[in-house]
Amino acid sequence: MAETGQHEQRYEHYEGGSPEAERLVFDRLARELMEVQVKNRRAGGGGTARAIHAKAPLGVENARLRFHDDLPAALRVGFARPGADYPVTLRLSNASGIRQGDGAPDLRGAALRVRVSDEESHDLLATSYPVSHARDAREFVAFAKAMAGARNPLQKAFGLLVKLPLAVGFETATRMRRNVQAATRQTVTSLATQTYWSRGAMLWGEAGPVRYLLRPAAGTPPAPPPDRRDPDFLHHELARRLASADVSFELCVQRYVDELRTPVEDTSVEWKDAVSPPIAVARLTVPSQDVDEAEARAAARRVEDLVFNPWYTTDDFRPLGNLNRARKAAYQASGAHRLGLRFVTEEPLRNRIIGRPVGAVLTRLNRYVPWHRLPLQLSLLNLVFLRKVLRRFNLIDTEVREAPPKAQPVPRPIEERLRTERSYDGSYNDLSEPRMGAVGAAFGRNLKPDYRPDQFDTPNPVTVSRQLLRRDSFLPATSLNVLAAAWIQFQVHDWVNHRRYPAGGPSVEVPLPPGSDPWYNTPGGSAENVMRFTDNEGLEQPGNRPSILFGNMASHWWDGSEVYGGDEETARFLREPDGGAKLRLEDGHLPGAQNGVPLTGFNESWWMGLSAMHTLFAREHNAVCDALRAEYPSMREERIYHTARLVVSALIAKIHTVEWTPAILATKAIDIGLKTNWQGPPRNWLNQLGLWLLEAHSLQGIPRTVPDHHGTPYSLTEDFVTVYRMHPLVPDDFELREHHFGQRLETVGFMDIQGGAAESQIRKTGLVNALYSFGIAHPGAITLHNYPRALQQFERDGEIIDLSVVDLVRTRRRGVPRYNDFREGLHKQRIRSFEELTQSTESLARLKEVYRSVDEIDTVVGLFAENPPTGFGFSDTAFRIFILMATRRLQSDRFLTVDYRPEVYTPLGIDWVEKGGMDSVILRHCPELAALLPRDSSAFAPWRAVRPTDDGNDHDSGGNGEPG
C-alpha cells in the first residue's frame, strides 16, 4: 500500500497502490459522472445541471463567516483565527441530480465559498445526513449511474433494486439503500433548520483530520407546515424567513480519534458525537434580505454558474479520503460539462449491441483478408471498426499529471476573447483543461514505449541508411506532384517540433561503420569517425524514468502556427505595423530576414516548395481580411485578424482532409471515408442505415459534432511523428518552367533552392511559374532506396547532418517500438520472415544483410519496405496511425467542431471554408493557372503540362520577373 506525506502516512491509502493508479480510476469515474448528467438532463427536460445537487432554493453572495473569539488554540490554523470575519458565497440545494419538486424525498446540501483574499478561498461542502451512502468514489458513482434519469417511484425502485446490486453486489447495495432511505425519510420544512455534515474528512493543519458540520444556530424558529402543492416551497419559506430576520448556522468540527471509530477513507461510517464531540468554531450568517428582488436574483444566477470543489482551498485544509480525492476530478469535469466547456458523446445502445458481434466477425475476417481487399461497403465498415479498436487500445496519455490531487485557488474566469479566438500558443482550445495541446505539452503515444539503450546502435544506423535508404536512382510517385511533398512539410511544421539543445549542448554520437569515409560534422570542420548532432531536450519525469518524454514546441492543434507563429510576440511581429489585421508581405512575397530565410511562423528546413506554400497562405489570410473588412465595416482589426486566422486554419485542415490525403491514399474507400469526416456520409440509404446501426456518430461531418477526446487528453504522438517521416517525397533536382509556353527556365538541385537561396529563387522564377513547375513534376515514392541524397549531407544550424540517420536514431531513442512490434501493436499480424515484408529481390537481400532477424528491423525501414495497398502512397501499418489520428485532430478541436459556426467564424468565414479548397486558393492568387489545374482530381495530382513550342527557345534563363 503506497503512502506519501506526513498526514497521508497516518490516514490515507491509495486505491491501486499508488496515487497515479488511483488517478486513472478517478478520471474514468469523472467521465461516467458526465454521462449521468446527460441522462439527468433528458429526464429533467432542461439544460445540463450538476450531477448532484441540481436545484438550489437559495444562492447568496453576501453571507458572512465569523470565527469565535474563544476558538480553541489547537484549531487556530491558517484563516481560522479568533474573531476573523470573511465574506461567504452560500448555496443551499436539493441533492438530486434532477430538478424536481421540493416535496420529493431527498437529501439537502450546503456549499460555502469562504473568501479570505483575492488569492485564497475555501470551499466547504456538506449534506443533510451524517454519513454517505457510499464508502468510496466507486460506490458513489455506481449509485449515481443506477439512479440517473430516475424521476418516478418505479424508475427509482428499479435503480435501487436491480441496477445498483448488479453494479456493486447485493450486500453493498443493501447497505447503500438503507442509508439512503434513512437519510430521505425525514420531512424537510425549511433548509434553515437542517444540519449539514461534511461526511468526508479534511485536514485542519496540525490539528489533523476533522469532519465538519453546519447546524442551525440556537433559537432558529421552526418552519410552518409547507404547501406541498408548491414545487418551490423551500425557496419561498427561506424568502419569508430572510425578509424579517437573519438566518444563522454554527460551524462545528469533529476531531479524528482513531481509524476504527473515526475512519478517513470510509465515508459510510459516522463519526459519532459521543466519540468525537462537535466543537463550535464559527458562525455563518445570511443577512436579512429580499431574495426575490432583481439584484438578489442576479446574484443567485451567478452562484449557479460557480463550480464548488473542496480542493479549492490551501494545503492546510485539503480534503482527505478516497471519496474526497475523487471529488477534484469529478467536480471539475461535472462543472465544465454543465458550463459547456467539456462534452460527452454518447454511443447509442444499438451501436454497442450490434457492434460487438459485427466487430468480432470483421476481426476474424481480417486474419485472412485485409480490409483493403474487401468490397467497397465492407471495407468502409471495416475501417469504422478498426478505428474503434485503435481508439480503445492505442491512445496513451504521457503528460505528467497531478497525483495525488493538490489544493489550489479557484480558477480565474476564462477571458471572453478566448471563447472565440485561437490563442497564440494553443492553450484554451479545451476550455476545461487550458494547457491541453498547447506549446510545450508532451507528445502522447499510440504504443507503449520500448526503450532499449543497448540497441541504440544495433544495427549501425549509418549502415542502415547507406544500404536501405539512400537513393540509388529517383523513383517517382506518378500519381502526385511535388506540391504534395511541399504540402506535407508545410503541415508537419504546424504539427510537431521537438526542442533541440542549442549548439554546443548535449549531442548524440553515431560511430561510423568500419571502412566508411570520414564525416565532417561542421562546415569547414575536421574529419571524424563519428556522426554528431544535437540531442533532443526531454521533459523531466518522476521516478528516474528514461528521458523519452518530450514537449512539442509547436501546438498540437491544427492552428496554422507555421504561418502565424506559436507565441504572441511572433504573431504580432508578422502582422502589418500599428496592429493591422494583415500579414506583412513585400510585393506579394514573405519579408526577408538577414540570413535570407523569410519571416514566417516556422522557417526551419526552408526550401522553395515551402516558400510557395507559405506565400500562398499568407496571401490567403490577407484576402480573407479584405473580405471581412468589406462585409463587416465595423469589425475591429483585432477581430478581423483572429477571424481570418480561424478561417485559414480551418481551410488548411479541410484541404488536408479531403484533398491531400485522398490524393496520396488514392482509393475509393479512403476518398469516401475522408469526405465523410468533413461533410458527412454519401446520401444513400445503405450508408445511412449502416452508420445508424453501427456508428451513428458518423452520420454527420465532424464539424457538426462536439469535441470528443475518446477518453484520453488530446495530443499528437511520437508514433504519429514516425509515420510522417516522408522525406523520400523530395526530389534531388527540379526543372523550373514558365507556364505560358512550357519553356524550361533552368534546372536546379535541391541545395540551390533551400535555405537562404529559396527566396531569391522564387522571386526570380515567380510564384506562378514555381507552382506550375512543381505541379507538373512528380515527387519521390515513399519506399526504400529513395531517400534524397541532398538530405544525407544537409547543413542545419551550423552542423552537417545525414537526415536519414537522424530519423533512425531519433526513433530508436524516443522508444518507438521496432517495426514488427509496431505493427503488432496496431493489430496486424507479425511478420515471420523477410519475404513477408517485401517482394523486391534487391531489398530482400539487403534487409537480410543488415538485420539479424525481422524483429530487429527499424520502424522507418519497415514502413518504407512494406508493400502498400493498391493506390496507397504509404504502408497500411502507417495508415493505421493515420486513421486514428486524422479524425482525432478534427474531433478534439473546439474550433473544428462545436465552435465551427457562423457566430464565431462569421457567416462569410464559414462560407469561405465550405466553398474553398486548394484550387480556389491557387486561383485566387494565381488566376493564370486556371487551365492547367487537373479537372477531375485535386491540385496535388499532376497538372496539365504545356508543350514547349518548337522554336528553339527551350533554354536556361531567368524568370519573367512577375511578382505573382
UniProtKB/TrEMBL annotation:
Residues 947-957 have a biased composition (Basic and acidic residues). Residues 945-964 are annotated as: Disordered. PROSITE patterns: PEROXIDASE_3. Keywords: Dioxygenase, Fatty acid biosynthesis, Fatty acid metabolism, Heme, Iron, Lipid biosynthesis, Lipid metabolism, Metal-binding, Oxidoreductase, Oxylipin biosynthesis, Peroxidase, Plant defense. SUPFAM superfamilies: Heme-dependent catalase-like, Heme-dependent peroxidases. Signal peptide: none annotated. It holds the Pfam family An_peroxidase. It comes from the Bacteria. GO terms for molecular function: peroxidase activity. Its cofactor is Ca(2+). PANTHER family: ALPHA-DIOXYGENASE 1, PROSTAGLANDIN G/H SYNTHASE. This is Peroxidase. It comes from Streptomyces tauricus. The lineage of its organism: Bacteria, Bacillati, Actinomycetota, Actinomycetes, Kitasatosporales.
